[in-house]
Fold this protein.
Amino acid sequence: MMKIEAIIQPSRLESVKEALLEIGIEGMTVTEVRGHGRQKGHTEVYRGREYTVDLLPKIKLEMVLADGLANRAVEAILKTAKTGKIGDGKIFLSRIEEAIRIRNEERGEGVL
Amino acid sequence: MKRTGVMCCCVVILVLTAFPLLARQASVPATPSASTASAASPELPKTVTEKLNQLEQKAAAAQSSADNAWMLVCAALVLLMTGPGLTLFYGGLVRQKNVLAIMMQSFALMLLITVLWALVGYSLCFGGNGPVIGNFEHAFLRGVGATPNADYAGTIPQTTFMIYQLMFAIITPALITGATAERMKFSGTVLFMTLWFLVVYAPMAHMVWGKGGFLNAAGGRFQTLDFAGGTVVHVTSGVSALVCALYLGKRVGYPRQPMPPHSLVLSFTGACLLWVGWFGFNAGSALASNGLASSAFVATQFGAAAAALGWSLAEWLKHGRPSALGAISGAVAGLVAITPAAGFVGPMPALAIGFAAGLFCFWMVTRIKGIFRYDDALDAFGVHGAGGTIGALLTGVFAQAAINPIFGEGKAVGGLDGRWWQVGNQLVGVLFAWSIALLGTIVILKLVDLLTGVRVPEEQEVAGLDITLHGEEGYNLES
């Protein structure tokens, strides 16, 4: 089992979701987050006072998938989340030891 | 038999109705001299004089009804400026943790000043004919009823005039809360505002608008033109706001830490409501539903629009982008500046005053505040103090007898009419408003500091005033 954490531009969320649905991914967790990488922030001016906003709004997608599906999911995200500009985000992959469904205490890949 | 009976009845009725007519016709040629003399001559038959009196009464009643309807609406419009206008405007400008505290301060003034007004406030502003302050003639609203008070508004019930003026007394101290925002105690605010209303507002209102007041345009020593409150409302509150900001000190973290407005959407809505309410403020100050009210209404619209354009233009040139906050701040600055001039200037001078105020207030807020480093949190001084001052002075330049011959038919009113010393009178009025606001506010702040304290402890300020002073939060979005 693999866990995919993808941090993407908020404006790309709908396209990414659609692409993931198309390859048969049924579950994901979406969180509104703030952060920055190399992009850094922008400045805002209120009545002449300038503020640097360095933490920008992003979307974090998390999903745990069977090994075979994980690669296809990464491809789908790469294809749909890319705008080509700095600030498009990152994808992180990690191994998952176990998955448990709370309702019936079932374990393993079948839970996903 | 039956038919002749009916006929007889008809004849009798005809004769009976014709008799008074005949009698009246007969009496007319009997007094031929009366018809050639003036119509109101006492020699007219009693019935005609009575009719004329009745007509006069009916005309007066009709005018009173029209004026009263308009003035009651205006009173409601001016209250709309405080709640929800000012509460939304200021509420959006503070940080999320202080939104209820700032709204509550304005709302508390709606309650507090209303009660004070009934007890002594109205009387201190408009009772008697002293040069500096009113008396207790109308304390507890004694003698304030349906009969008009000819000294102020001869065609509307005095109750209407009283309630209309109350709304001005509410918004004036509420404007100051923009400078003390995010750090002043609620208890301190309540005590401060009570004393400020009695010590600064009441005398200033009486001096400029009250009968016998020494700055009154009609018969005062220094005839200050202030149609709707440039000096009485905006200079006093704006200058007091500056004193408060200096006395309280900066907010924790200012100016290092960013403190952007938490919701410009609220502020935008509030500013637009202020604009609408301002028609009641300025046009209503004609105290009648007449041509002067229309003129003031028009000047208000043009002043606001020109100032918003001026501010936006300056911002566009300086920062590269015109902001929503800049546009609405400019509109408010223009409304402030046109307030003293509204009933004295035509549409073109209104555009000029508004544009000048937009540029001047932009400069005050973005440049001067930065140089002197005072923390006027929501720019009560930069907009109201500065806008009120420039508006009051420009009123002396642009006021015209053609709009409002306040000094008598055919007599010059402002500089454009050739009466340039009126600008000097305006300067005296402005200086007086500055002085009474400066001195009064310092003394009151010292006193309040001793009694309740003025500033919240640092940990409360950091946690936010909503939770610490009122025990609630503005937004519980997860509930």
Observations:
- Chain A touches chain B through nine residues (CB under 8 Å).
- Chain A has a mean pLDDT of 91.
